[in-house]
Design brief:
The protein is an alpha/beta fold. It has helices at about 30-40, 55-65, 135-145, 165-175, 185-195, 200-210, 245-260, 275-290; strands at about 1-5, 10-15, 20-30, 45-50, 75, 85-90, 95-100, 120-125, 150-155, 180-185, 215, 225, 230-235.
Length: about 300
């Protein structure tokens, strides 16, 4: 089983009903989205995080159940659910405005987390869960505890509103990268982290820190994977993009699903052949592409890829 650990929130996405416009509440949160994406691809998946007992939290809990995500590691509390309003640029790229202090997702309790079962072969972390509220330290410690004990993956999924000190965050990120096997990061995130910097230099520096593979998503240009001595670029098919909400999370789901399906989560990524890495990126691109052809974060099912 793969466990994703992090935030579950409600995204309010823009919708048009005839002459009326408004926002439609949808389940969201990067780590929540990855869990849903993995489960829909037929991968045994669990979610580790804290949900509210309010109406939104109950909806998130039910949505996990409906998608057959294991709830062993889910906590519940009286804190409210965090809300995010999505604004789509003309290109379909989303911008987020977050609302809610002292919310459930940011108050994960260390003492209430059961040890990961031996059936859990991989742990995926990242996004605002690592920087927001008292729960951030708990998620960070979780990564440290399972470093070298499980396959670890990380997607920083930068949200500048939650990072007041860019230099301090860079330092933290370098520490986390030393613990993980796989880093997935968007070109936009790298541009925010290191304005004017080189994608290649940053990715190779992260590989030197200890990441077995660094994958950079390039939007409509595809993705590139960096390893010790190799750089593999794979483009995307031409598609009609509705919006890109959840595309990065869907891509991450595709990466982890492929590695699980090929029984590669217990082997060093450095041992993967170049043709296999190319297939990995092609699969993840396809999963993300199907998500972009629908409104909001609605990752595909395995049957959609056949």
């Amino acid at each position: 089983m793969i466990v994703t650990a992090g935030e579950a929130i409600i995204d309010f996405t823009p919708r048009q009903w005839g002459s009326e416009s408004g926002f439609l509440p949808r389940p969201g949160g990067s780590l929540f989205n990855v869990a849903i994406g993995l489960a829909r691809l037929g991968i045994p998946t669990g979610f580790l995080g804290r949900l509210s007992t309010d109406c939104f939290g109950q909806h998130l809990y039910q949505y996990l159940q409906e998608n057959q995500v294991d709830l062993t590691y889910v906590q519940q509390g009286h804190e409210p659910t965090a809300l995010a309003f999505v604004n789509l640029r003309e290109t379909g790229v989303p911008e987020y405005a977050f609302y809610g202090d002292q919310t459930a997702d940011s108050h994960l309790k260390q003492g209430e987390i059961p040890p990961l079962d031996q059936s859990v072969c991989a742990l995926h972390c990242g996004s605002i869960a690592l920087v927001r509220g008292p729960g951030a330290v708990v998620y960070q410690e979780l990564m440290q505890v399972y470093a070298s004990k499980r396959f670890l993956s990380l997607d920083p999924n930068i949200r500048p509103a939650f990072i007041p000190d860019r230099d301090s965050y860079r330092h933290q990120l370098s520490q986390w990268i030393q613990w993980v096997d796989l880093v997935k990061v968007s070109q936009e995130d790298l541009q925010w982290l290191f304005p004017g910097g080189s994608i290649q230099e940053t990715a190779r520096r992260w590989v030197q820190l200890g990441a077995g593979m660094v994958v950079v998503t390039l939007g409509s240009q595809g993705a590139v994977a960096f390893m010790d001595e190799h750089e593999i670029v794979v483009g995307t098919e031409s598609i009609q993009v509705v919006d890109t909400v959840g595309a990065g999370d869907a891509f991450m789901s595709g990466l982890l699903a492929f590695l699980y399906q090929q029984d590669l989560l217990r082997s060093p990524l450095a041992d993967l052949s170049l043709p296999l890495i190319e297939k990995l990126l092609i699969f993840a691109n396809k999963v993300a592409g199907l998500t972009c052809q629908q409104a909001g974060s609605n990752p595909p099912r395995l049957s959609d890829l056949i």
